[in-house]
Amino acid sequence: MDPAVAAIAEWMPAQRWYGGKGHAPLVRRIGAWELPSSESGVRVRSLLVMDDATRPPVLYQVPVVERPAAVPEASAHLIGILEDGTHLYDGPHDAAFTDALLDLIVHEGRAVAAGATAAGHYSGAPDAARPTPHAPATVLGGEQSNTSIIFRPEGAAPVICKVFRQLHHGENPDVTLATALAASGSPHVPPSVGDVIGEWDDIGRADGRARGHLAFAQEFLPGVEDAWRVALLAAAGGQDFTAEAHALGAAVAEVHRSLGAAFPRETASDALIAAIDAAWQRRLTIAVAEVPQLEAHRAEIEAYYARARAGAWPQLQRIHGDLHLGQVILSPGRGWLLLDFEGEPMRPMSERRRPDLPVRDVAGMLRSFDYVAGATELVHPERATEARAWAASARQAFIDGYVEASGTDLGKYRDLLAAFELDKAVYEAIYETRNRPDWAPIPLRAIEQLLAAGPLQASAPSGG
Ligand SMILES: Nc1ncnc2c1ncn2[C@@H]1O[C@H](COP(=O)(O)OP(=O)(O)O)[C@@H](O)[C@H]1O
Ligand SMILES: O=P(O)(O)O[C@H]1O[C@H](CO)[C@@H](O[C@H]2O[C@H](CO)[C@@H](O)[C@H](O)[C@H]2O)[C@H](O)[C@H]1O
């Protein structure tokens, strides 16, 4: 057995990206490769470890740096000390790994080993300066499902490289959608820099191998906070956010148009409608099991789904899939940019790669404005009325911006939008109960309000 694996198993549960919260990991090594290191005696390795503690088992990517002795200033990133005295450090926090990763992408390197391979691919614009090796690197803090490293190379634009933690066979929509949008000239995504594709043993596949994205690098826009923080501050200060929300609605509509042109569309056949309905029902079943307060609303929620199923359906196309304020940034010079097209982390990857309904994204952002009110209220209950009014204006402005820029008659898809808003709130009820139980009242209150508003008022667009 690889001696690093036992140390990783002990360390994993405390990592934000570990999805099996509440379980002790049960890991086995699927593969590992080594990247070149410029420091003698130092090994840069990436391990692919399967966690069998959850159903289905989850495959994690764990880059590590093995050093012969302790690096005292890196003690916070020590994974463990192996029997032979080797010190195992968390790769994204160690320059030996970050140098090797950037080099792999920019110079299209390839690492081959038993059980797994990794190949870098550069996709920067021909006229863009290629990032130099040995760029200072830092890990982005905060609550992320993946690990993002920011590089500040000399003479080239900063780069953010996201190391995917949970791996799946097949394309990662974050890479393919953002890269296609950037290639189409869309101003609403950061230009792509490159990616890493891996291949690993998988006895569940016909040819015994799985292939998928391991990392994705894009230009990093420094000094721009994600809109969740900006919106929270605006709501707390009673600042109007309608102009920004309107422009965001227009940007989302333009991204939908570009994605519709770049990827195949599909007509909403009975089979597709049934599949989406089944996904709503499946999620509701999980939610009721994990959040017992929802049992009382189950029949009413199902009635919304039934109405939506019977109503009008537009064509399906690729969408963002997990759109909320934490996934968008407003650059003073470039306007709104959308990030993280990976889709909802709790949804099977095979579903996230399929054409979907643009109203799912609209609903996601509407929920996010409501979250601003909910989060404000949790801390300052006395500001509830103002916060809710702030959210209501932002929601309406977002819808208006979307309708004007897309020409879509959202009024026609009112039932569908209401169903997706409820479905998102149901998802959030599960997400919060698992990750931030104090926040569970935000989606639970939203579900009650959406149901109380009645089918025709829920998310009612003002025009279009
Ligand atoms: N290209 C970028 N420029 C500036 N900030 C970015 C960029 N990409 C990501 N970020 C910041 O990183 C945060 C997390 O990125 P995201 O892609 O959503 O990662 P995750 O999949 O781990 O949630 C975003 O909310 C944003 O603040
Ligand atoms: O950013 P991720 O892809 O990891 O998304 C997950 O985590 C989000 C929280 O960080 C969660 O979003 C929910 O909380 C946000 C505020 O923190 C709010 O803006 C969103 O509207 C709300 O859904 C997201 O659902 C989850 O998939």
UniProtKB/TrEMBL annotation:
Domain Maltokinase N-terminal cap: 11-94
E.C. number: 2.7.1.175
Chain ranges of the Aminoglycoside phosphotransferase domain: 139-379
Keyword Nucleotide-binding: yes
Catalysed reactions, semicolon-separated: D-maltose + ATP = alpha-maltose 1-phosphate + ADP + H(+)
Pathway: Glycan biosynthesis; glycogen biosynthesis
Name the UniProt record assigns to this protein: Maltokinase
Organism: Agromyces aurantiacus
